[in-house]
Amino acid sequence: MGVRLMVVDDHRLLAEALASALKLRGHRVLAAAAPAAGAAELVITRAPEVCLLGTATPAEPGIFDPVVRIKRERPQVAVLVLGPVPSPRGIAAAFAAGASGYVRHDERIEGVERAIMKARAGEAAVAPQLLQGAFSELLNPAAQPDDEGQRLLQLLTPREVEVLVRVADGEDTRLIAAGMGIAPSTARTHVQRVLMKLGVGSRLEAAALAARTGLLDRAGPVTRAPGAEA
């Protein structure tokens, strides 16, 4: 007997292709929608048996908030996360939010269908080795590496952290130099070191990475010299 499903992914083509493949295998796919930010409301309204929820960043803070809401308001719905090759932290976050399993984006349709049937039956739908790593993370969080923002923060000196904050604020080399009381050439050197340590190729990429990982929240505000506002 087919399963009442919902497929939600930021990549509409992927969602629609997976929905079509599952329909051909006899399942009733209620919707294939994007973006995932609207998944919770849609799932709560339609109440499928299983929801396949796509994500490109399973370790990002808050990415599984829709799962939390779905399980709170529709606990009978089994949520399967669709994502890239995950880390134990990503798997753990999915299970901690209430997901029933994790399926890789490159999984064959037969594997996706097996995961769906397991999830509907109340079983954990994830490869054993991934499940073991997830449970280890849940049971021993202190034994795991710190989060990405903290790891990146530890790569930088206090001076470089200040430079990064100013870069994220949109300051150019002249303003960075004035605000820190250093020569423009020194400021330029600091910026290059920050880019190198973060593994990015531009100031824009550095600012985006810092914001996405929460590094800026940990760094805190900088003290600005008079006339050095961005």
From TrEMBL:
The keyword DNA-binding applies. Coiled coil: none annotated. Residues 4-120 form the Response regulatory domain. Keywords: DNA-binding, Transcription, Transcription regulation. SMART domains: HTH_LUXR. It comes from Streptomyces venetus. This is LuxR C-terminal-related transcriptional regulator. The keyword Phosphoprotein does not apply.
